[in-house]
């Protein structure tokens, strides 16, 4: 039963309507992705601005302006201090996600979102006013705390609020907000780079306050999820909220399953210790491997450093920023493909198709760069070759945007039982941020030393992750979040880890198997 089998255990359809209340609520919550997206997009553009590099990283600026023809194109931007500016945020987000786990569990998802928004706001003000590298990095660390809180709470919030049949699409509002944030950052960078007077970079960094304000104000007015209310002992409020979001007074069946899950959760005193038990092995594995693989698609190489990368392969200043805008547009529009298909074709199909498309694009980009720059990294690229690389990068970004981008957040947020959900999501976020940090810190150095082979390096990981999904991830579309154990129980590999008493709602053993 291994391989191309998608196993879907029998699960309940609780019914209920798709209410305007739940749509608006999920839309507001998803804006938490704006802060992460804006930050991903803004740093690469700012670090390619001459006036910013001259002020904070003069050594890099001098190397960049060397027109002697002897400069290795791959190594122009190799500076550990420069990459520390970008990557310090992600190590802060890693640490913050563990604090956010406790905050989310004790005070609710809404409170975590509010905290993240406020801290991010302070960080954006500090970055905009920065006078030295220390101020820049302290500001980035505060931004990281905000991102850690938002990324911990928002995907869980969306998965808990959404009805099972629309959970994929509504949860992907978070990824859509990330892509909108990236695009907005690219457009801001393109505009601020033209500001006379040398303060354009300040505007770029300070405008991070806009998504922070949107998230903070939105969080004030958001209700808490039924799951969170039950987890904190507010049973009556939880039932009223469930009726409101389902648009139906008759929610007894779903509510009884939520209570059953909540009661099981309350017996768990140490979620961090319990998540290591064999019964949670499938979820723990996915919460580590999916964010790990998401970062090793190489996507953040494109998003952090798109302007720098396009400059390296021969685009001018304006052209490199505009190319980043184009890839940002592709990223945003391709996410709509995922939103429209994830609850119909399922998670696995998008993962597999996206992986194959990314692999092809990475191999071709590596071959072109190898032919043009060689191992020495000395040479130039014709306009037609540059445009071909831009096209391949856009095709790669599109594949990511309808597969590993949104699904890397959706799948881990929907698979955890309530008793370990906050801990599981904290692991998901911290692994994601740790490897985002590693990639951000090492990429420019890796580009310098591995040269065009870097694209083959990430391509190898894409091949491995595609095979991993093919063999080990069951289909989770349309499955109520509290019944996810039913799916693991039916899986050819994971079934042996799930005890019978972990099954909620449905207790019979039939299954549906479909071939992809």
Automatic annotation (TrEMBL):
Recorded GO CC terms: membrane
InterPro entries the UniProt entry points to: MFS_dom, MFS_STP/MST-like_plant, MFS_sugar_transport-like, MFS_trans_sf, STP/PLT_plant, Sugar/inositol_transpt, Sugar_transporter_CS
Keywords: Membrane, Sugar transport, Symport, Transmembrane, Transmembrane helix, Transport
Membrane topology per record: Multi-pass membrane protein
A Pfam family hit: Sugar_tr
TM region(s), chain numbering: 20-38, 89-107, 119-149, 169-188, 200-222, 288-309, 321-342, 354-375, 387-405, 425-447, 454-473
Domain Major facilitator superfamily (MFS) profile: 25-477
PROSITE patterns the record matches: MFS, SUGAR_TRANSPORT_1, SUGAR_TRANSPORT_2
Subcellular location, record wording: Membrane
Gene3D superfamilies associated with the record: MFS general substrate transporter like domains
MF (Gene Ontology): monosaccharide transmembrane transporter activity; symporter activity
Keyword Cell wall biogenesis/degradation set for record: no
Cited NCBIfam families: SP (TIGR00879)
UniProt similarity note: Belongs to the major facilitator superfamily. Sugar transporter (TC 2.A.1.1) family.
Name this polypeptide is given: Major facilitator superfamily (MFS) profile domain-containing protein
């Amino acid at each position: 039963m291994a391989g191309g089998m998608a196993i879907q255990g029998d699960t309940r359809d609780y019914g209920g309507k798709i209410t305007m209340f739940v749509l608006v609520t999920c839309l507001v919550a998803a804006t938490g992705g704006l802060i992460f997206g804006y930050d991903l997009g803004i740093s690469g553009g700012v670090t390619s601005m001459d006036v910013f590099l001259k002020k904070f990283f003069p050594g890099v600026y001098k190397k960049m302006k060397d027109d002697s023809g002897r400069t290795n194109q791959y190594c122009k931007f190799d500076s550990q201090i420069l990459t520390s500016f970008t990557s310090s945020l992600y190590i802060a987000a890693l640490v913050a996600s563990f604090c956010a786990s406790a905050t989310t569990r004790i005070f609710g998802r809404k409170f975590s979102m509010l905290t993240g928004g406020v801290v991010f706001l302070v960080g954006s003000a500090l970055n905009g006013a920065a006078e030295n590298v220390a101020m820049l990095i302290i500001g980035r660390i505060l931004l990281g705390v905000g991102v850690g809180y938002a990324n911990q709470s928002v995907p869980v919030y969306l998965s808990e609020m959404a009805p099972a049949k629309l959970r994929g699409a509504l949860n992907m509002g978070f990824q859509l907000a990330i892509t909108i944030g990236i695009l907005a950052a690219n457009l801001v960078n393109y505009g601020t780079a033209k500001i006379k007077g040398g303060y354009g970079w300040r505007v770029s960094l300070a405008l991070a306050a806009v998504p922070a304000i949107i998230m903070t104000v939105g969080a004030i007015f958001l209700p808490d999820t039924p799951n969170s209310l039950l987890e904190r002992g507010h049973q009556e409020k939880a039932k009223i909220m469930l009726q409101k979001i389902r648009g139906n007074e008759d929610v007894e069946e779903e509510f009884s399953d939520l209570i059953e899950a909540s009661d099981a959760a309350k017996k768990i005193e140490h979620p961090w210790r319990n998540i290591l038990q064999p019964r949670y092995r499938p979820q723990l594995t996915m919460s580590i491997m999916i964010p790990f693989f998401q970062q090793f698609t190489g996507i953040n190489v494109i998003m952090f450093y798109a302007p720098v990368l396009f400059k390296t392969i021969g685009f001018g200043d304006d052209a490199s920023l505009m190319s980043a805008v184009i890839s940002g547009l592709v990223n945003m529009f391709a996410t709509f493909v995922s939103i429209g298909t994830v609850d119909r074709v399922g998670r696995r199909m998008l993962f597999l198709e996206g992986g194959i498309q990314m692999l092809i694009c990475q191999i071709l980009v590596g071959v072109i760069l190898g032919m043009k720059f060689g191992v020495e990294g000395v040479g130039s690229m014709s306009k037609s070759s540059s445009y071909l690389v831009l096209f391949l990068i856009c095709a790669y970004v599109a594949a990511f945007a309808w597969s590993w981008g949104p699904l890397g957040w959706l799948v881990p947020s929907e698979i955890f039982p309530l008793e370990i959900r906050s801990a599981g999501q904290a692991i998901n976020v911290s692994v994601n941020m740790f490897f985002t940090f590693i990639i951000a810190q090492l990429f420019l150095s890796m580009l310098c030393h591995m040269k065009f082979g870097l694209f083959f390096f990430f391509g190898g990981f894409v091949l491995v992750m595609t095979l991993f999904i093919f063999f080990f991830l069951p289909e989770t579309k349309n499955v109520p979040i509290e019944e996810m154990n039913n799916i693991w129980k039916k899986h050819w590999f994971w079934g042996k880890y799930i005890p019978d008493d972990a099954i909620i709602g449905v207790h019979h053993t039939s299954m549906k198997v479909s071939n992809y």
